[in-house]
Amino acid sequence: MALLLLAPAPAGAEGGVAWLGYEQAAELARQAPRPIVLFFSAPWCYLCKKMQRQVFSDPELAGRMQKQSYPVLVDVTQEPRLMELYEIKQVPTTIFLDLNGNPALRLTGYQNRAAMGRALMFVTKGHHHRMSWEAFSSQP
Amino acid sequence: MRRMLGVVLTALLVLSAPVWAWATNGMNMIGTGAVSSGMGGADVAVPAGCTAIAGNPAQLATTCNRVVSVGGAFLNPQMEVTMPGQSGVDNEFQLFPLPFAGYAQRIGTSRWSVGVGIFAQGGMGVDFNNVKNFMGNDDSLYSQVAFMRLAPTVAYNVTDKLTLGLTAFAGYATIDYDFFPRGVQGQHVTGLSSYTIAGRFGANYQINDQWAVGATYTTESSLDFDGGEMRFNFGPGLGQVTYRDVKMDDFTWPRQVEVGVSFKPGPKWLLAFDVSWVNWAAAIKTVTVTASNPNVAVPAGYDTLTIPFVMDWKDQFVFALGAQYEINDMWTVRAGYNYGQNPVPDNTLNPLFPAIVEHHLTAGFTFTYQDWDFDFALEHGFSNDQTNNGAPSSTNPFAGTEVSHYQDTVHIMVSYRF
């Protein structure tokens, strides 16, 4: 019952990514391990809003994110503890946590749909154990 | 400090020379950067990167990390001057590079963004050879007005919706001109230069996800040109006399007020509209050139020459309309229209300073590859004709002269985010 209450919105929702809270995602990851995607944003951050509008609103990407990971939106003005914990120096910053909760990939700045989809594959398929992000992202 | 600033600006000007522009809203460019220019200069309420340094400084806050931009424009003016009773003479081929370089960054996760840039604010210039002077002999009309600005900028997100910005302009301007130098009373003037400071305040308010409004106020830049040299042609008798101290007074870059609105009708579209008021009437009235310290003995009364250029420009309203469409993650296309009222009165038209183009159409695109943006825009200024209908006088030597002018400009810019 608890899992049902905590379950994220259905994959591929037209409204884009249904974000979770950090604690909520951590609890879900303990119950059913998946990578966690932390998207650090700020209310005044233009590129964060642009990513929300152009990247995370994409039904295909949103569906994949919610099916393969637990997406978390972190407002750095409300979550100074998380900002300090993950050493956030700028926004937008996107951090992918592996199944053990360790940072597997950190992307700073605006990321388009293709880059975000590739990053999701990099972590969820375990490529981060075998090669660097630079090597992976430069593959055709 | 002033000397150091002068050295820096002079070095940058030399590195980017020649930057002489035939500017298009009076003496101002319609926009700085390929993004702004591609939208017809409608940029007050439009997110910008580094080019906010030359536009609305509040838009610098849309820079979230660090970005460096380098680029500029290449401007090709086409002009014709027709003196009374003569056939028209085309200007010599000119292609003016107008550089821009800037850096901007967000300070950590704070509400502050900072940047600095250097760019060509505007200017104008002509190069007519084989024009008949007032004696009926082949002569030349030539002018170069250039204005570069170094601009440290800061922006602050006051709230989630309201952003303010401030730019300090350190400017350096130069003027050279030839006024029928082979004829009697002809002048060949070189080396006039001036440093100046000014400021621009900007604001942007994001009403909701679709609508934003913005405004800027730019103070005037008072330019006190000096350090020039003039070769004045007295004709038979004294002949050519060189005056070694030449200055120019009452040439001012005007204050300006801009308001703009942007609207996103859909996730891929952005429409923008700006209205600007440029206070040329207070800036360009009678420009006076004073020449002294002649290199030879001259009769009494000729030690110092005072030469007025009565210009009496009018205030100008500029209307800019732009549209942007994001095809996909990599390609964005733009188009724009810009209309700036001709600030030059009919009765003071001077072919040395004919900033008369009014209508512009623009188109452009951005290609984004990873952390790189490659911006490109084309701008066409449609032909405008104007005839000096003032009465002939010593302060209106160009009565009856007609000038026509159109121009094409290519804008390119490369930006890297890191």
N-C termini distance of chain A: 44 Å
* Terminal Cα span of chain B: 32 Å
CATH superfamily of chain A: Glutaredoxin
| The level-1 CATH class of chain A | Alpha Beta
- Tell me, what's the shape of chain A? globular
Along the chain, the helix and strand elements of chain B come as: HHEEEEEEEEEEEEHEEEEEEE
Structural class of chain A: alpha+beta
Explain what the structure shows.
Chain A is of the alpha+beta class. Chain A has a single domain, classed as 3-Layer(aba) Sandwich (Glutaredoxin). Chain A is 41% helix and 16% strand. Chain A contains 7 helices and 4 strands, in the order H-H-E-H-H-E-H-E-E-H-H. In chain A, a hairpin with a 5-residue loop joins strand 3 and strand 4. In chain A, helix 4 runs parallel beside helix 6. Chain A starts with a helix and ends with a helix. With 418 residues, chain B is mainly beta. Helix content of chain B is 6%, strand content 58%. The N terminus of chain B is likely disordered. The interface between A and B is medium-sized, with 25 and 22 residues.
Give the secondary structure arrangement, pairings included.
The complex is a heterodimer of chains A (140) and B (418).
Chain A: H1 2-6, H2 22-31, E1 36-41, H3 46-54, H4 59-68, E2 70-75, H5 80-85, E3 93-97, E4 103-108, H6 113-124, H7 133-137
Parallel strand pairs in A: 1-2
Antiparallel strand pairs in A: 1-3, 3-4
Helix pairs in contact in A: 4-6
Chain B: H1 2-16, H2 34-38, E1 66-82, E2 89-90, E3 96-106, E4 112-132, E5 138-157, E6 162-179, E7 187-206, E8 211-218, E9 221-233, E10 240-253, E11 256-263, E12 269-278, H3 280-283, E13 284-294, E14 305-310, E15 316-326, E16 331-340, E17 359-369, E18 372-387, E19 402-417
Antiparallel strand pairs in B: 1-2, 1-3, 1-19, 3-4, 4-5, 5-6, 6-7, 7-8, 7-9, 8-11, 9-10, 10-13, 11-12, 12-15, 13-14, 15-16, 16-17, 17-18, 18-19
